[in-house]
Amino acid sequence: MATLLSHVLRRLRGLRRLPGLPRLAAEMPLRARSDGAVAGPLYSHHIPTSPLQKALLAAGSAAMALYDPYRHDMVAVLGETTGHRTLKVLRDRMRRDPEGAQILQERPRISTSTLDLGKLQSLPEGSLGREYLRFLDVNRVSPDTRAPTRFVDDEELAYVIQRYREVHDMLHTLLGMPTNILGEIVVKWFEAVQTGLPMCILGALFGPIQLSAQSLQVLVSELIPWAVQNGRRAPCVLNLYYERRWEQSLRALREELGITAPPVHIQGLA
Amino acid sequence: MAAPKSCALWSYCGRGWSRAMRGCQLLGLRSSWPGAPLSARLLSQEKRATETHFGFETVPEEEKGGKVYQVFESVAKKYDVMNDMMSLGIHRVWKDLLLWKMRPLPGTQLLDVAGGTGLAWVLGDAEELPFDDDKFDIYTIAFGIRNVTHIDQALQEAHRVLKPGGRFLCLEFSQVNNPLISRLYDLYSFQVIPVLGEVIAGDWKSYQYLVESIRRFPSQEEFKEMIEDAGFHKVTYESLTSGIVAIHSGFKL
């Protein structure tokens, strides 16, 4: 065992001497404890990655997401590997807003374990909580399908992107968009304008590739302009403490944000 | 057990092998793990609280088997695709060379351990094989021995179940002998492979384990000595692809 370990150590030291190679820690994330000075994970599920790995992941995940649209995990990876700069901007925006700052402080999470579904059920019709629940039911989705962040190398920014993901369903509810491909694209356009995340922009631009000519027509002529308009008009949606607004009427919230009714009725609209 | 005429020799890596030598009696052994319901004998529990390596991690010895099992549960579905992607198809060449070296003939009793999808297979444990002594002409293990918790025990078992005159053949990742290639190989291993694992199979960690476990495995010479320690004679090895893999061979006299 000792000879194996010294052998490994020799090899690791050899690697570090070489110019042009990424830092040892990034090269062998998590486990290269043999040299003692390694940057380990910053948060649970964190996988530290070198710039080269991030670039490869970004390219690979983009290609795979296009190739197999059911690989939602690839969309998440794309977001994480390309979003660092934008996440900083978003985080700063949150810091400057009182409600956003509170969210950063308290780090609420939206999942079945943190939501009191019974309470939401009992809320009046038309309230945010009740409508959010209805959205989950009708589209048969659960807030728990969001994978944890792994490739963001900053623990606060990791939360910001996690929050963005968990708020995504809220946006569906606010915009009245279903979870079919058309609805998702519309929400992506809204998010792209709102957040500036490269992943949202890419999704907004490339998502429509798979659409029929008719859907594309409706999308381009009506839905995208509407989504962009609302996205620009509304304040930053990450600054809303949704968990404190369950009782607020959805209509009132939409008014507060300047979100108008969708221009066309998308099939399957809740 | 007579193999059907069109039987193919399936490797540890599933569908990568070339067509089999017809008529050879092949028995594949799928490694079982503690608790597997069909294993002939369970892995005896270790009394000492020792630790071992799991890639670059250190884990209690009795946990290693389970952790490796989880890795392979996870990688099973995309195994062949990943092998092709990671090695650019070269793993097939390596396996062909192993097959060529062993030159099985009709009637050869061959045991392929950690065989994945074998033809007639038995669930067992490489460290405690469910076979009698002196049973097989050839024992092969391709890309399997690296993952065994007690390699020395697996080697001893290999020795036990081979007939006198029988041959042990192991195809496994080894140490690269050329410094430049070694650098490139390490770069590729650590930078690209886990990314491939994530993109293709949605599994970074298993492929991180893979590249780490390769570096933990003894060098050609060290492994040769281990094989000799298990009682084999005329132990030789042949490095392939600058030592990325090696085929070790030994005989039971």
Automatic annotation (TrEMBL), chain A:
Enzyme superclass (EC): lyase
Membrane topology according to the record: Peripheral membrane protein
Positions contributing to Zn(2+) binding: H168, D169, H172, E184
EC number(s) given by UniProt: 4.1.1.130
Pathway assigned to this chain's UniProt record: Cofactor biosynthesis; ubiquinone biosynthesis
GO MF entry, a single one: 4-hydroxy-3-methoxy-5-polyprenylbenzoate decarboxylase activity
Keyword terms of this UniProt record: Lyase, Membrane, Metal-binding, Mitochondrion, Mitochondrion inner membrane, Ubiquinone biosynthesis, Zinc
Pfam families: Coq4 (PF05019)
Named cofactor requirement(s): Zn(2+)
Reaction catalyzed: 4-hydroxy-3-methoxy-5-(all-trans-decaprenyl)benzoate + H(+) = 2-methoxy-6-(all-trans-decaprenyl)phenol + CO2
Main location: mitochondrion
UniProt entry tagged with the keyword Lyase: yes
One GO cellular component term: extrinsic component of mitochondrial inner membrane
Annotated compartments: Mitochondrion inner membrane
Family stated for the protein in its record: Belongs to the COQ4 family.
Quaternary data: Component of a multi-subunit COQ enzyme complex, composed of at least COQ3, COQ4, COQ5, COQ6, COQ7 and COQ9.
Summary of the function given for this chain in its UniProt record: Lyase that catalyzes the C1-decarboxylation of 4-hydroxy-3-methoxy-5-(all-trans-decaprenyl)benzoic acid into 2-methoxy-6-(all-trans-decaprenyl)phenol during ubiquinone biosynthesis.
HAMAP family: Coq4 (MF_03111)
Stated name of the protein: Ubiquinone biosynthesis protein COQ4 homolog, mitochondrial
Organism in which the protein naturally occurs: Papio anubis
Gene expressing this chain: COQ4
UniProtKB/TrEMBL annotation, chain B:
The EC number(s) this enzyme carries: 2.1.1.201
GO biological process: methylation
Keywords on record: Membrane, Methyltransferase, Mitochondrion, Mitochondrion inner membrane, S-adenosyl-L-methionine, Transferase, Ubiquinone biosynthesis
Topological type in the membrane: Peripheral membrane protein
UniProt pathway annotation: Cofactor biosynthesis; ubiquinone biosynthesis
Catalytically driven reaction(s): 2-methoxy-6-(all-trans-decaprenyl)benzene-1,4-diol + S-adenosyl-L-methionine = 5-methoxy-2-methyl-3-(all-trans-decaprenyl)benzene-1,4-diol + S-adenosyl-L-homocysteine + H(+)
Keyword Methyltransferase: yes
Cross-referenced InterPro entries: SAM-dependent_MTases_sf (IPR029063), UbiE/COQ5_MeTrFase (IPR004033), UbiE/COQ5_MeTrFase_CS (IPR023576)
GO cellular component entries: extrinsic component of mitochondrial inner membrane
GO molecular function, one term: 2-methoxy-6-polyprenyl-1,4-benzoquinol methyltransferase activity
Binding site for S-adenosyl-L-methionine: T117, D125, A126
Localization (cell): Mitochondrion inner membrane
NCBIfam families cross-referenced by the UniProt entry: MenG_MenH_UbiE (TIGR01934)
Family: Belongs to the class I-like SAM-binding methyltransferase superfamily. MenG/UbiE family.
UniProt name for this protein: 2-methoxy-6-polyprenyl-1,4-benzoquinol methylase, mitochondrial
Gene that this polypeptide is encoded by: COQ5
